[in-house]
Please model this.
Amino acid sequence: MLTPVPPGPSVVVCNTCRHTADAREDETGQRGGALLEAAMRSVQAADPELQGVQIQAMPCLFACSRHCTVHIRAPGKVGYVLGDFTPDEDAARAILEYAARHAESEHGRVPFKEWPQGVKGHFITRTPPEGYVCT
Model:
């Protein structure tokens, strides 16, 4: 049930997420999460500044009332679950840019003025790292 992944900053993308709030798949039969994962890998491959964050895919983050959901995390830092993205390169870039800033931050808190526009309004939850709560 659990598969080990390398430690470090990462974006866990739900590769089975719905395509939109109303459609499970796009017109070619692909899930939104799989399309978002592919877009993230494409953006990352083209931009060396975004390669310090791992892209890790898994089926179902249990945010099924949302679509195109990701979890941004790093050891010892507050993590965030975001969703309702369009599975395209614009969303992928915004997610990866935020994740890179998250990785560079001391505790996982990125100042709002540094948030890429594409992540604003997409936050669902924040999760404290093991052994901590947020104050």
User: Anything to note?
Assistant: The longest strand covers residues 10-14. The domain at 10-127 is CATH 3.40.30.10 (Glutaredoxin).
